[in-house]
Write a structure and sequence with these properties.
The chain is built from 18 helices and 15 strands. It has about 575 residues and is of the alpha+beta class. The strands form 5 sheets. A 4-stranded antiparallel beta sheet has the order 3-4-2-14. The chain has a 4-stranded antiparallel beta sheet with strand order 8-5-11-12. The relative contact order is 0.10.
């Protein structure tokens, strides 16, 4: 490879590494601490915060207009000016000039519309920070403190209980694990636990990291808890009576537990109860759209569902959710729907109504199709239905609580070990190899830079074993440089000129370096695949370090030698005492 091509290749690699590292830089260096705290919270907390801040900002803007009607839009309110101009354009009227704060507020149909715009700004900022965190290098629990839990999914029982589903065992196991991870993610975030890390480990294990403090009993109840899903008939008359009562007594209809205080006054019969009708909002959370009165009697239990999938209507191509019932469920559902044609049927999951569909005709044969959704809504409903037929028994195999003080101490010790090791090696290389030691120092710095970049690119977690792998890599990188430098010295002692000595030194050292690093890389790959936990973290960092070591030693260092030879016309090599 020509020198110009090598230079361009190195620049391209460093640029790609910077792109990999940018999310981590953005999160740790450019995201304010208060935004980090919000982003690490649950989606429920983010939603509450955004709503409260939006309400406060609306009140502040209204008060500002009242006190100073001619106030102009400030430099920090350009977002409001942009929204106001868009509103006036939608109304088909000219934007007032100058555009005052009062005129900007008048472009909104209501304060609620303005509050929604402001809430969207807060939400976007925090969720963007949350995405940066997910794409950045994270600190493991041994560094940040918290709790780690390993959960085992009983896949054998899932396969045994779904022999009639028509799916092969491997597909059923894969679907079951995806469902288990999805369910745990939903449960843990709903309980307000900050920024959990949940991932599949091996075939039937799920690894959970919960930063910060968490109670073991609470975690166990969340993990091992089970949901409920059933179908109930909607009582239209009771729903209408309740809504009339509710809109007249909004502040006194429900108690603190969400129960109707006076069912008789609200027009709710003894055989009915009121539940919220929910959809998924912009946060990915359940958002209440209204209330329905449903029968307490369950028309069909979710345990009769065998499978669920998203399809398309034959005529319109619109999304529809298809699910299949077992033989008993098909008979129950066929009879029930035949007796209630024209009425509405509610799908209730964990005390929330997730769907409200009209029964068009008697549904027999056990195959049911529900329509009237967008693609995202259909996928959400499929997940809800899937929890019924693909419920995965989960058991906690192990859990470990790590205090934050231990994490702080581990961070300091790990960083100190890397810094001391790196500085000591650099000093030795500069003393022993003089000018050539500069090449080694630059290679070491780039080596760490590349390692951190790839850790960020793969969203890996830095733990104490990961740091150990980095420290080992620093030593291995020095070995590669030492081999090259010693071969160059030998060539120089034979009387060869600078260019020939450097070329022969690198050529002769090439296979020795590749042999040692390839064998180490193979061992690291096997450890990363067969090992778990700390062993896997050590192996991954070691494998990345091996690749970056070979690159910096054979490509970067070689280019630096050649550059000094051709650009600065150097004849001698500052590589050892007594050797020129």
């Amino acid at each position: 490879m020509k020198k110009r091509s090598r230079l361009l290749f190195i620049i391209a690699v460093l640029a790609v590494c910077f792109a990999f590292l940018w999310p981590s830089i953005s999160w740790y260096a450019r995201t304010p601490k208060e935004v980090q705290a919000l982003a690490l919270g649950s989606l429920e907390n983010i939603k509450d915060y955004s709503g409260v801040k939006a309400s406060e900002d609306v009140k502040r803007l209204v008060a500002q207009v009242k006190s100073e009607p001619s106030a102009v839009i400030g430099a920090d309110q350009k977002w409001l000016e942009k929204a106001a101009r868009k509103n006036y354009k939608a109304l088909g009227t000219d934007t007032p000039s100058p555009l005052t704060l009062e005129a900007a507020l008048h472009s909104f149909s209501s304060q609620q519309e303005l509050a929604s715009l402001i809430e969207d700004r807060y939400r976007s900022e925090i969720l963007k920070a949350k995405r940066r965190y997910r794409n950045s290098v994270k600190l493991g629990l041994d560094l940040s403190g918290g709790m780690n839990v390993i959960v085992r999914a009983d896949l054998d029982s899932v396969v045994a209980s779904n022999t009639e589903s028509g799916m092969d065992a491997d597909t059923l196991r894969r679907e079951a694990m995806e469902q288990a991870v999805e369910t745990l993610t939903s449960r843990i975030d709903r309980f307000g636990l900050s920024s959990p890390t949940i991932r599949q480990q091996g075939e039937d294990r799920i690894y959970i990291e919960l930063p910060g403090s968490a109670e073991a009993d609470q975690i166990n109840s969340i993990i091992q808890g089970s949901g409920s899903l059933n179908f109930r008939l909607v009582d239209d008359d009771a729903t209408n009576s309740f809504l009339v009562y509710y809109y007249s007594h909004m502040d006194s209809t429900f108690d603190s537990q969400g129960r109707v205080i006076d069912p008789v006054a609200a027009g709710i019969p003894d055989d009915c109860e009121v539940m919220g009708l929910y959809s998924t909002d912009a946060y990915g959370l359940d958002q209440r759209e209204g209330y329905l009165a449903v029968k307490k009697a369950v028309a069909l239990d979710g345990s009769h569902i065998k499978s669920a999938e998203v399809g398309r209507e034959d005529m319109t191509g619109r999304p529809q959710v298809n699910f299949t019932l077992d033989s008993e469920g098909a008979e129950i559902f066929g009879t029930f729907t035949g007796e209630n044609v024209g009425r509405y049927l509610a799908l209730v999951s964990d005390g929330k109504i997730k769907s409200n569909a009209r029964i068009q005709t008697a549904i027999t044969g056990g195959r049911v199709a529900i329509t009237g959704f967008s693609a995202d809504e259909a996928q959400n409903l499929r997940k809800v239905l899937q929890t019924a037929w693909l419920e995965v028994p989960l058991t906690v195999e192990s859990q470990q609580v790590i205090g934050a003080s231990l994490g702080d101490q581990a961070i300091r010790q790990g960083l100190l070990a890397i810094a001391v090791g790196l500085i000591a090696i650099m000093i030795f290389m500069l003393i022993w190899y003089k000018g050539a030691g500069v090449n080694a120092c630059v290679a070491q710095i780039l080596n760490l830079y590349i390692m951190f970049s790839f850790l960020s690119a793969f969203n890996l977690t830095i733990t104490l074993p990961t740091i150990a792998g980095m420290i080992l890599t620093i030593g291995m990188a020095v070995d590669a440089n030492v081999i090259i430098f010693e071969r160059i010295k030998d060539e120089r002692r034979l009387g060869k000129d600078r260019a020939s000595s450097i070329a022969s030194g690198f050529d002769n050292a090439l296979w020795a370096i590749l042999d040692s690093n390839i064998t180490t890389f193979i061992a690291a790959i096997f450890m990363s695949q067969l090992g778990t936990g700390s062993i896997q973290g050590f192996a991954v960092s070691l494998a990345i370090g091996v690749c970056s070591t070979v690159f910096t030693a054979l490509v970067v260092s070689r280019l630096m030698f050649d550059f000094n030879t051709e650009a600065f016309r150097k004849k001698n090599i500052s590589i050892a005492w007594g050797v020129k």
